[in-house]
């Protein structure tokens, strides 16, 4: 092993500067990721889902009907048509085309999943970074709060938030975002604590670097890959939570087509029209699966030794 | 003859190619003999021992040759028959005393497991035997220490426990893979002394694997020097130390620090590095590091010559060339 | 050891205080007034005012919390806004159903998770491994409630093998002694009731177990792969221990240590999953009931349930740590490391 310190301060400075930049670390991850078939498959599915979501959304903005049928057009004379050439996935209790509704639902699930993660990520990273870097009482207070949130099952907490906030797309995003904050805070705090004790961070401190600079230049690059993995897996959790809230009738409300909501409303027809309950579930599972595949691949790319935590 | 290894070849199939970790080696061990196998890391000495024990892990595989134990070809034995031999007649001590013991088992249970498996003793008798063997290897207040977990013991104590475990069923052959490397010098001497004493007491043969020629000179009867999976030289210990023939052996001997040497000379080092196992030189594997290397050495593999019981693989001692170095 | 346990139990106090404050904030401070929800849209102003007075909602917020807290300390968690029954009674009448479901689920999840995980690790990269890992991947990707729906469609709808809702045929319901029907029916010697309760349990418990099983499978596999690489496994093989015993007695005993943590943590997530499973299978447990109470703004019940769940969570963490110390002799809890 090379000695980490030198009596020459210039060399110490260099040692302190010698940290992988975020970009190069991400680049290395990408290279390893490309070798991982499962992860590439996940990325491919996510790509397709994103294209579907964007196409549906853009055509909606332009007022064009690109789906085979209007996903929200109800026609009771056409209710419960079994899957056939016209209606690939059949029609639901209100005679709406299931295939169109499921494609339309892609946009909601991806949007809620990604934005909810963005919320928990931002708040969680800030909390975790402060707790980890400041330590002491600040750390204790923040982490105790996080522990308390973890002691309440996240679905109950989300339901309580929904009850307080009211139903709706934006509220679902906030509720789902809020309940995952502790996970990110814990990860970031843990990573910072482990990095903080490293010699090059000490060296940077001795050299009189500013705190914010140390966090940005030395600590963040080490934490970023862990966060990327967690966030990817977090999207799958968020998609599941969205569906769960929807299923309980608390989530995204009509006119939006949402997969969990579709399942919740079709529940009464479980024996008479089971196909109305099959396809939305498949859509959720595929979406969640894709993010899990990608997340697992990223984790392996990051460190083949660290598995499920 | 207790153990005979005949033309043993062990290969590791890797993605980037095949590594011949052990390349066509033959040797024997007699009853009660201590045979030392010396070499740098990567010379194939540990793989040799694992091949004999049948403990090679996945990419590794014995691809040629035979191993006879008491004239029985081990490759013809079933898994069960091998298990009966292992830990019973042939046992092994490993290099890492810190990690080679199961951390969640009391040491007495780890030793008793082997005794109950092979000697078919009752639990009570197995415990008595365990304490007896722990005393034999020099563990003080053995009856109490037997209840300890490995983490409660020092490295030297753990290696004694490993030794006790290996000796528990009175093996006829003990393979000791770098048993002293991870230990302090004083503890090293104690463990070696212990091995020597056990050999005397139980008349068991020892195959001692080491990179340390100092250890060899103290303990061994006969020495094999390995390099890149091949035997370079083999002789009884006195001959080898007094009259080394292979330039590699000479280099190894010169690099032992001498306490009685007052000169300010720097300690000798063999120049260069062990060749990449995926990219072996065509001729003698030592040719690019050898100070007496000749044109021929880089082109042809020298054969192992037997010169009055002293075996050497080097063109400098090629019998047909009259043993002359000036060709 | 005892001091460690006591210290950890004392830590319950701040956690419960904090959790109660969180719930209080969400439900009393940030939620809309429960009065119109409880009394209905058409309730008169006087009725609303009177109801608020009776339930102490006119007091300042801090006083409301203080009243709740002092009540809770004497074991009085308040009464449900709707049934007027004590919260403790409301919870206890439903809690055993949830616990029975969760325990059966965690047993299923642990058993199959460990078995599949160990086989996957021992036969790494074989067809067993690939199949096991595929199941685990699907398991973490499928919504619990959808799996429940699929099980109902298949086993109740198409095959008519198993019931799709409830805990037991009401005609067979045993006297409530423990509240666990499997135990109560055995105590009553009523085997018909036992098997009927078991039949009712299979589908919801399987649906609830799937996610945890997938997590445990993956954890077991990676932990076992790690352990099988260790030097002491080689030592065991060198002793002539048969391979099956090497895996079960040497590797699993060590590999189990991280697995236990995961199982303990899963019990927490099972209680969350129970909310959805109970809804799908009309299981008369605490999960579905809590959702109902949140939606009806029945604050005292929700607060009570959350405190109970948080207590279980903290106790599970403690139990996991104690099992940890039992499995790994290297860990000794001293009073310092709290």
Please describe what this structure looks like.
The complex is a heterotrimer of chains A (309), B (327) and C (338). Helix content of chain A is 71%, strand content 0%. With 309 residues, chain A is mainly alpha-helical. Chain B is of the alpha/beta class. Chain B has 2 domains: 1-89 and 171-258 and 265-275, P-loop containing nucleotide triphosphate hydrolases (Rossmann fold, 3-Layer(aba) Sandwich); 103-170, no CATH class. Chain B contains 10 helices and 12 strands. The longest helix of chain B has 18 residues, at 185-202. Chain C is globular and about 85 Å long. Chain C has helices at 2-10, 12-29, 34-39, 45-54, 61-73, 87-122, 127-141, 144-158, 181-187, 191-228, 231-238, 243-280, 286-295, 299-327. The mean pLDDT of chain C is 87. Classes of the chains: A mainly alpha (309), B alpha/beta (327), C mainly alpha (338). Chains A and C meet through helix 5, helix 6, helix 10 and helix 12 of A and helix 2, helix 7, helix 8, helix 10 and helix 12 of C.
- Parts with pLDDT < 50 across at least 5 consecutive residues of chain C: none
What share of residues of chain B is helical? 25-40%
CATH superfamily of the largest domain in chain C: MetI-like
Strands of the widest sheet of chain B, in order across it, are 6-7-8-3-9-10-12-11
CA-based shape of chain C: globular
Any idea how many domains of chain B? 2
| Main interface by residue count | A-C, 46 and 55 residues
Unreliable parts of chain B: 322-327
The structure class of chain C reads mainly alpha
CATH architecture of the largest domain in chain B: 3-Layer(aba) Sandwich
